[in-house]
């Protein structure tokens, strides 16, 4: 019998990738192409959607070529994508009317403040699970509609279409205008309970419904692709963090993963009902396979984790490369009483204090660069603990194991310290490419390549495990100091600061 | 002030000449450049060779700077960096072979485990990172010793400890074994450290051509051997992973 494969497109913030997986979930080939960020003004970040589409076509061709595969060898294609980035295009010509506005773009700052003032946070949280913030698509779309001459009229007439990156790619691949509910849940326009566009939210943001894609499940056949992928069913779309949750096979309530990169994203499956957060977390969709009930997740994002190691490397130049921080940290036994809170642009989940700025607390004449390196690594673990505690308090279920992925999982000292301060076992899966794997799994499920999620669980293997090994007294004393250090960061900004 | 030690000055002059544009020089060239008798230069070279500061090319008989000297310079690779760069490839080696993977570097004549990937069968396993293994009784160690012969010589001088009936404890036998490892580009330990355990390994090479580590798998003989020899497909996976990590470190593809 001929081997068949599933392809995944990971359309990320920095690059577009295509990975091909076999039935055991092993990587058969990888192709990647980076795209430049466009910075029209300070705080503005855009991508050229045409360039992204060309790159996607190129990486698909390269990934197939590398493994000597043809479209007919693929049973399905799944998409995982950078979330929230916003594109509007012409229904007739298929051309984008503006560059894609990236999720990091801050131009909607004033829109977000106005929305918050006019309707209050709860109005948005109750309906969409999200507080107004510049990340989400809705305010970006509002800016485009307000700024581009005649766009609102054309949107009302159904002549221009809105989409996040998944929609843009599905449109180009199949000619259909769709999105999946995990991506829709990041627009601030979808109602978490009805899983449809919310009339009141659309009114608050002034978005015409005629331009919005149809919301579908994360795993179903949306249509067949054309071009080089002619005949391949496009069968899954998920936001990248939700794809990682799925790729880590966190299918049951209470299962959680954290992806450690520049920033870190902790998502916990909360089962079939949305859990409102009173601790500053986001309520979001985890996944929906076909017409099965949808699953929800709580999300806590940590803005500065790997970025702090990069800052330590580039701004203090105490190390030559990021991995060397572990070598430096191992020159000492502990942090020497030193704590580093990287509130570089304020405190995020679960504190949400924009008036905070970073501190290094507990400095004495005893502290060496080794202690600082420890404090830098420990900051990632303590921040994770804060988010985990918020999650446990919101969801009411304990965490038994944290599944981790991303670049920082290569740091053994950090992973051990994480297990120590969370007091749970930390495990790294064998396939670190959990984002692409999640999209491939969802697509494979949709076409019956894999029969059910149990088969996928059997594919998941542990590559490493770190067990907690810290005296509880020491752990709680450390956490107390960390919280004191956090308290020192707040109320730093004054009204007359620039 | 006491005078300088003449032989050290002369040795330094040799190293300086070898680090210049020509890189490889014979005894006659060096003697001519330094204005010294051939015999004196030969004696200095032999000492420098024994500490690993120079190496002699087998074919031409000419001398070049040795790996030990290069290691002391900036080309030293941090073990944590090696793990980070090798992460994807060692995962894929474990997935393909269904065996546990380890990456090791030389540390005071022993193998320091800098990375460990569990065997993908979800059995209870413990991370070995940070532990030290005897170099002459493991595949990782033999790969490293084969490419750092001066360490092997030092080790043999101190005596080679025996762990099982199969451990190589004789200096000459070890030298022959390491020559074979160098020649074929991989090493095997068949019950040489632990009776019912086999390990296979291949070298990780950096952009300067230096062996900076070794990557390999370990497991029971019934899975790793066929007719008492390492299984060909497993060796191929190990060597492929070593090449992939080397490419990642900027080594010229081979």
Structural commentary:
The complex is a heterodimer of chains A (498) and B (254). In chain A, helix 9 crosses helix 14. A 7-stranded mixed sheet of chain A has the order 15-16-14-13-19-20-21. In chain A, strands 3-2-1-5-12-11 form a 6-stranded mixed sheet, with helices on both faces. In chain A, strands 4-7 form a two-stranded antiparallel sheet. The radius of gyration of chain A is 22 Å and the shape is globular. In chain A, strand 1 and strand 2 form a beta hairpin. Chain A has 16 helices and 21 strands. Chain A starts with a strand and ends in a 9-residue tail after the last helix. Chain A is 35% helix and 22% strand. Chain A has 498 residues and is α/β, with parallel strands linked by helices. Chain B has 254 residues and is α+β, with helices and mostly antiparallel strands. Chain B is 44% helix and 20% strand. Chain B contains 10 helices and 10 strands. Chain B has a 6-stranded antiparallel sheet with strand order 5-4-3-8-7-6, sandwiched between helices. Chains A and B meet through helix 11 and strand 21 of A and helix 5 of B.
Strand order of the largest sheet of chain B: 5-4-3-8-7-6
Largest sheet composition of chain B: 6 strands, antiparallel
Q: How would the global form of chain B be characterised? A: elongated
CA-to-CA gap between the ends of chain A?
A: 67 Å
Provide the gyration radius of chain B in Å. Answer: 20 Å
Give the oligomeric state: heterodimer
- Average residue-wise pLDDT of chain A: 92
User: In this structure, how is the largest beta sheet of chain A organized?
Assistant: 7 strands, mixed
Mean pLDDT of chain B: 88
Number of strands of chain A: 21
Principal-axes geometry of chain A comes out as globular
Low-pLDDT stretches of chain A are none
Low-confidence stretches of chain B: none
Give the strand tally of chain B: 10
Order of helices and strands of chain B: HHHEEHHEEEHHHEEEHEEH
Provide the spatial order of strands within the biggest beta sheet of chain A: 15-16-14-13-19-20-21
Helical content of chain B (DSSP H or I, runs of 4+): 40-55%
Helix content of chain A: 25-40%
Alpha carbon gyration radius of chain A = 22 Å
How much beta of chain B, percentage-wise?
15-25%
Total helices of chain A: the number is: 16
């Amino acid at each position: 019998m001929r081997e068949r494969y599933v392809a995944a497109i990971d359309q990320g913030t920095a690059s577009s990738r295509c990975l091909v997986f076999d039935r055991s979930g092993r990587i058969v080939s990888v192709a990647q192409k980076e795209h430049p960020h466009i910075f029209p003004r300070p705080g503005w970040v855009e991508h050229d959607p045409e360039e992204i589409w060309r790159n996607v076509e190129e990486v698909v061709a390269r990934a197939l070529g590398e493994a000597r595969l043809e479209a007919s060898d693929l049973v399905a294609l799944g998409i995982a994508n950078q979330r929230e980035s916003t594109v509007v295009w012409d229904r007739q010509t298929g051309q984008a009317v503006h560059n894609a506005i990236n999720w990091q773009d801050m131009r909607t700052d004033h829109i977000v403040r106005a929305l918050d003032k006019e309707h209050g946070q709860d109005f948005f949280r109750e309906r969409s699970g999200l507080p107004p913030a510049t990340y989400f698509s809705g305010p970006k779309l509002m800016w485009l509609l307000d700024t581009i001459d005649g766009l609102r009229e054309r949107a009302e007439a159904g002549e221009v279409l809105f989409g996040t990156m998944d929609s843009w790619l599905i449109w180009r691949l199949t000619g259909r205008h769709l999105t999946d509910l995990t991506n829709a849940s990041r627009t601030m326009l979808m109602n978490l309970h009805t899983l449809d566009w919310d009339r009141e939210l659309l009114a608050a943001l002034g978005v015409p419904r005629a331009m919005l894609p149809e919301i579908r499940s994360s795993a179903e056949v949306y249509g067949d692709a054309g071009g080089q992928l002619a005949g391949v069913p496009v069968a899954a779309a998920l936001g990248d963090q939700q794809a990682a949750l799925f790729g880590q096979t966190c299918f049951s309530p209470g299962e959680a993963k954290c992806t450690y990169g520049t920033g870190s994203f902790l998502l916990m499956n909360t089962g079939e009902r949305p859990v409102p957060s009173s601790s500053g977390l986001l309520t979001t969709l985890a996944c929906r396979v076909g017409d099965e009930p949808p699953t929800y997740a709580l999300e806590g994002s940590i803005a500065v984790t790997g970025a702090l190691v990069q800052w330590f490397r580039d701004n203090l130049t105490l190390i030559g490369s990021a991995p060397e921080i572990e070598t430096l940290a191992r020159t000492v036994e502990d942090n020497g009483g030193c704590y580093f809170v990287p509130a570089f642009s304020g405190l995020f989940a679960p504190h949400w204090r924009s008036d905070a700025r970073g501190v290094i607390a507990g400095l004495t004449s005893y502290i060496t660069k080794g202690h600082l390196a420890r404090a830098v690594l420990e900051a990632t673990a303590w921040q994770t603990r804060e988010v985990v505690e918020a999650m446990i308090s919101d969801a009411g279920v304990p965490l038994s194991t944290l599944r981790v992925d991303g670049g920082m999982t290569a740091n053994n000292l950090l992973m051990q310290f994480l297990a120590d301060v969370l007091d749970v076992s930390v495990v790294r899966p064998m396939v670190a490419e959990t984002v692409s794997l999640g999209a491939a799994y969802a697509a494979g499920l949709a076409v019956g390549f894999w029969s059910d999620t149990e088969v996928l669980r059997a594919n998941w293997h542990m590559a490493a495990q770190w067990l907690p090994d810290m005296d509880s007294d020491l752990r709680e004393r450390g956490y107390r100091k960390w919280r004191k250090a956090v308290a020192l960061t707040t109320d730093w900004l004054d009204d007359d600061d620039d | 002030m006491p005078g300088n030690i003449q032989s050290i000055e002369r040795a330094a002059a040799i190293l300086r000449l070898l680090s210049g544009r020509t890189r490889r020089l014979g005894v006659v060239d060096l003697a001519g450049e330094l204005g010294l008798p051939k015999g004196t230069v030969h004696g200095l070279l032999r000492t420098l060779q024994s500490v690993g500061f120079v190496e002699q090319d087998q074919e031409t008989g000419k001398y070049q700077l040795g790996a030990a000297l290069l290691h002391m310079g900036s080309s030293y690779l941090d073990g944590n960096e090696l793990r980070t760069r090798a992460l994807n490839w060692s995962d894929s080696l474990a997935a393909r072979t269904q065996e546990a993977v380890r990456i090791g570097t030389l540390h005071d004549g022993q193998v320091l485990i800098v990375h460990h990937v569990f065997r993908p069968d979800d059995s209870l396993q413990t991370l070995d990172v940070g532990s030290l293994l005897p170099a002459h009784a493991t595949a990782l160690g033999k790969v490293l010793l084969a490419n750092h012969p001066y360490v092997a010589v030092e080790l043999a001088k101190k005596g080679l400890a025996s762990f099982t009936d199969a451990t190589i404890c004789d200096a000459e036998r070890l030298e022959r074994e390491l020559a074979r490892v160098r020649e074929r580009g991989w090493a095997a330990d068949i019950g040489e450290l632990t009776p019912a355990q086999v390990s296979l390994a291949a070298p990780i090479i950096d952009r300067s051509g230096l062996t900076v580590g070794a990557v390999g798998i370990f497991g029971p003989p019934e899975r790793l051997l066929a007719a008492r020899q390492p299984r060909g497909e497993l060796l191929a996976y190990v060597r492929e992973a070593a090449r992939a990590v080397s490419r990642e470190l900027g080594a010229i593809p081979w």
